[in-house]
Amino acid sequence: MTGHVGRVALRVTDLDRTVAFYEDVIGLETLSRDGDRAVLGVDEPLLILQRSDRPARGPDETGLFHTAFRVPSRAALGDALARIEAAWRLDGASDHHVSEALYLRDPEDNGIEVYCDRPQTEWPTTDDGRVEMDTLPLALDPLRDAAAGDDRAPSGTTVGHVHLEVSDLDAARSFYADDLGLNVRASMSGALFLAFGDYHHHVGANVWNDRSTPPDGRGLAWVELVTNDADAIRSRIDTVTAREEGFEVVDPDGITIRVRRPASHPPSGR
């Protein structure tokens, strides 16, 4: 099964400030804006921001751990670091063996990762073919030296993966692996990583913060998965909601997942 993450939609309270952050710090472009909704991306839509009057996400609510924007080169990651250090706050930087990653939070406290993959031939693997990931310190000076000086994320930037906070890893494994058909690619204490094909992960899930109630506040509205096997997924799930572009389902923690086939033209922000 092949596929990737498409768009991520977030509910926010201050649309203007959040749009400016994703433009100036993450380097996305505003592709369209209509009233209380903004669509941002690179080449095609990646992020939907929707103004919302909902309360802030509660401390027990499941939902988003981070949206991970994958950039196509180490130079682009160096440029992202430069933008973050110039205009925002860097929360952390890690070497995961399969990738190098920067971590921060947006103005609405949504987690963000910006990362660059290492060549897949360099990814360490286990005897059963899974990937071995770790969280090691990432030296920032060599990354600063690699920067090219671009103030925008380059063509080829995508949402590489989403990492979710769930209440139960076994339930998450059953839904994302058995129902959606993703492969379990790695696991560690309190976390699970799943992917279409042999990527290191398109979906991460963790129970590190003991979230136990369904999402009801601001934050993650939905995540979109794009796959040629959308019809097969739909046949395995009892309850789906049809949409103009595919369908949506709700995972065991109340997180909305949209599924669609690849389109010849990029979808709208709806």
UniProtKB/TrEMBL annotation:
This is Catechol 2,3-dioxygenase. SUPFAM superfamilies: Glyoxalase/Bleomycin resistance protein/Dihydroxybiphenyl dioxygenase (SSF54593). GO terms for molecular function: dioxygenase activity; lactoylglutathione lyase activity; metal ion binding. Keywords: Dioxygenase, Metal-binding, Oxidoreductase. It comes from Haloplanus aerogenes. Residues 4-117, 158-270 form the VOC domain. The keyword Metal-binding applies. PROSITE patterns: GLYOXALASE_I_1, VOC. InterPro entries: Glyas_Bleomycin-R_OHBP_Dase, Glyas_Fos-R_dOase_dom, Glyoxalase_1_CS, VOC_core. The keyword Oxidoreductase applies.
